[in-house]
Fold this sequence. Notes:
By secondary structure, chain A is mostly helical.
Amino acid sequence: MKFLLRFTVWATVAFVVAWQLHPVWERAVAAIGTRLAAPAHSEIEILDLELFYPFDVGVFVALCLASAWAPRARRLRAALIGIPILFAVEVVSLVAGLRILMSSADADQAARFANAVFRVSGLVAASMAWLYLLGSERLSLATSKWLG
Amino acid sequence: MSRKPRPTSLRSPVLRFLALCVAYWAVTLLVLSRVPAIERFGISITIATVERAFRVLGQDVRRVGDSIYAGGRGVSIVSDCSPHVPYLVFAAVVLAFPSAWRQRLAGLLFGAILIHGFNTLRILALIQILIWRPAWFDFAHVYLWQTGTVIVLFVTFALWLRWLGPSARVRRPAVAA
């Protein structure tokens, strides 16, 4: 359970940092995303924004820092590689969600799809990026050792 | 001239696992958007369980539509309050992991109970925070949903892996950790 305890502690610390950063971060993601998603010669105005970014980045950083089986330099390197990737995933998710919302004939269906994308794409990407960069070594064991 | 066998990529089984996860997840997203009954079921079961939990705890509770009122405070149970999306993410991971179908089914059932249980506790806690410390609500709401849910998904998956035991391994050479 050591890994999970370390992860819980780091995730809580990272959440507090993400909580401070999230208004600025969300606006940055929205600024890029709306520009990319807007049809030609038009712009998208966002009135209310609730994307739960960068809490996914906080989870990713916490996973990296909790991966005590890897040397500290490797953990930091993984975190530095992952952060811009996750930012890109957030922008792509927003662009995809907005495009689906704008183009679908069935507004309810599109809203459900976009909502699900916004809700979990960042967290799924965070888990997968960590699994690829660091967690794969532990996944290979798939035994009680995984829990520390 | 003989060719040296190419060493198996250490990451290829993990990549296959990740690709399967993404494929399952994409399918669940499509199904979710096309079948509103799933979302409806998630909301209904959440409301029913929270209402029952309040009654068991002896607290007055009132249900009006999709809202629950307790201690003079009310919360509206919307799609985000339902555990169906986190559960489907968990299900994708369990289905993608190399194991027997019997073990996968056990994992899906175990995950459903644990994730639904956590979500019920989350909403009970949030309503108590709303009653006693309303200023903390936003912070607790996002913390429990974002970080709390991920922690629970990891714990549930890890417990399932432990239950699988040493027979379940990703087929690849051992790596020194």
